[in-house]
């Protein structure tokens, strides 16, 4: 595998990881789990464009990897899109909240 193939695979993994974060399937680097379905849709479109533009120009293994990533993202996207808004909001409410500290009284 040459350097460009490695870089292309790195690009695919970056898009895939970023989209999984946007789906709320994995935490972002700060440890937070958020959903951004519009971003995920754009990422899927970008990856599909890369597939089309690189057709016949990348090794078969990489094409299969890209196909698998696109299938996984599309299935998860549809699943998240079809979830009821109430269930999504419940996920947010289920997150543990930081305990509020009471202000200390000043001693005189």
**Number of structurally distinct domains:** 1
Major sheet description: none
Mean pLDDT: 86
What is the terminal separation in angstroms?
A: 73 Å
Order of helices and strands: HHHH
Q: What proportion of the residues is helical, as a percent range?
A: 55-70%
**Strand portion:** under 5%
Uncertain segments are none
Structural classification: mainly alpha
Number of strands: 0
Question: How many helices in DSSP terms?
Answer: 4
Shape label: elongated
Rg (CA only): 20 Å
Explain what the structure shows.
By secondary structure, the chain is an all-alpha fold. It has one domain (3-86). Helix content is 65%, strand content 0%. The protein has helices at 3-22, 37-53, 60-82, 85-94. Helix 1 runs antiparallel to helix 2 (37-53) and helix 2 packs antiparallel against helix 3 (60-82). The chain is elongated and about 70 Å long. 10% of the residues are buried.
Can you lay out the helices and strands and say which pair or pack?
Elements: H1 3-22, H2 37-53, H3 60-82, H4 85-94
Helix pairs in contact: 1-2, 1-3, 2-3
Keywords for this structure?
about 110 residues; mainly alpha
What's the quick description here?
This protein is mainly α and 108 residues long. It is built from four helices and no strands.
């Amino acid at each position: 595998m040459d350097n460009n193939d490695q870089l292309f695979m790195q690009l695919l993994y970056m898009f895939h990881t970023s989209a999984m974060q946007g789906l709320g399937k994995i935490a972002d680097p700060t440890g937070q789990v958020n959903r951004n379905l519009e971003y995920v849709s754009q990422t899927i479109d970008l990856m599909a464009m890369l597939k089309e533009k690189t057709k016949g120009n990348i090794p078969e293994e990489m094409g299969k990897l890209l196909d698998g990533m696109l299938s996984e993202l599309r299935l998860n996207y549809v699943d998240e899109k079809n979830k009821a808004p109430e269930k999504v909001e419940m996920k947010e409410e289920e997150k543990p909240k930081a305990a509020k500290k009471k202000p200390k009284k000043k001693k005189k």
